[in-house]
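If you are new to this repository, start here. Below is one unmodified record pulled from the training split, so you can see the exact layout before writing a loader.
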Amino acid sequence: MVKKKRLLAIVERGKGKRNFSCFTPESIDNCGMGGYGGTAREAMADTELSVQEYKELKAEEGKEFPNVEFDFRFDVGAFFDYYPIDVTAFAKYIGMNASVLRQYVTAIRQPKQEAIDKIRNGIEKLSRDLGMNRMVEMPPASYVK
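And here is the target side for that same chain:
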């Protein structure tokens, strides 16, 4: 029976356009999983492809390679590439300078821990706000009698 293994995978944006990478800090059987792409999604898919390649390699050797599931974590640039959130609007929402946030997103500047915490807290707040389901259930004019 093939084992299942869950690995942390870091998705990050490098400087320049279309420069994303994904890697696992932990290896399996001396096989480090990783990938590259023009978007965060492409880098993630390339990393998943590396698992299939290792499975095939190990099968040729008569060995098993575990089924790998990834727990993807994003840096600031990869997060905003993966999720289509307007950077300027989000900066306003969390009270951050939009120009500075754009520099973090494009990897021109590296955020300090304080900025990362502010962004993370903003994402959590947005998640809670969206979870409150504040949308009306029918066109607004329908509420007026």
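Two things worth knowing about this chain: The radius of gyration is 20 Å. The longest strand covers residues 4-13.
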